[in-house]
Amino acid sequence: MWNPIIVIIVMNLVREFTAVPSHSSCQENSCTNPVLMPLTDDVNASLVAKLDMSDINRQLKTFIESAIENRMEEHRETIKDEFSKNTTELLQLLAEEKAARLNESRSLSELKSELQSPRMQQRNVVSSLEQRNRDQLLLSSQVNTVFDRTASNESKVGFTVCVHANAAKIDGGSQILFDSVRSNYGVDVSSLNTSGNFTCTKSGLYLTSATIRSETNSAYFAIYQNDYAIVYGYTAEQDKTDTFEHSGTIQCVISLSQGDVISVKPWKTIEVNAWSCLTVVMVK
Fold first, then answer.
1. Of 33, 100, 101, 282, whose CA is between 20 and 30 Å from 179?
2. Contact 269, 170 (CB under 8 A)
3. Can you tell me whether residue 32 is helix, strand or coil?
4. How much is the pTM?
5. Do residues 273 and 222 touch, judged by C-beta distance below 8 A?
6. Lowest pLDDT segment from 49-58, 62-71, 142-151, 223-232
7. 226 in Cβ contact with 260 (< 8 Å)
8. pLDDT for 20-63, tens place per residue?
9. What element of type H or E holds 194?
């Protein structure tokens, strides 16, 4: 059972905090006016209690301010925690979004690389084939050059044959025999040692030169194509005191066909000595 006196005190405290009388002298944190409370005793005699509420007011105010501050602090901590939690979640979402975009970028890069890889392989194959074609063309050119040189060497015709030693006298109209081959390109000159004739095997334009060295006075001779004398020559004419050997040289250009015969013949009987020579070369 509540004590009536305590109930009355609490009610007056509430009234004190909810309304301040106009005649109150409360300043800042203290009120000097006492609180008047009507009381009755056991015989219902009227009594008046005069209470000083200044200390209670200060304590209640301090308690209320402390309670409000604590409540505000709790709200601040709650707000701070919620803000930190939301910030963390937002940063995590941003990080996940960034990672997703990075993975997407990597996927696109890998896909691009995979797409480019066959292209690069195709380019490498094409480049390799082009290089191989260039190598084949170069090799073909080199082979053709070798063949051309071989053909050119095979197409070359020319020789120089001479008389090796002093020969017996050669009758007029007889072929002079040349037994010493000094040079030979692409022809058979063995018949010049046996018959004194050169038979053409490759048609063309030939330069022919004959040099006769002899002690015979005015030793006349000629270059013949088949039985026709093309050009004539002779050695120097001797006088009674001059018996030395003399030489004479003649040259001509002849168009020969396959089977034509070249030979050197004297007009009269002459003595043919060493280093009498015949040179034939195809110029075209």
1. 282
2. yes
3. coil
4. 0.48
5. no
6. 49-58
7. yes
8. 444 445 555 555 555 555 655 565 666 555 656 667 667 767 77
9. helix 191-194
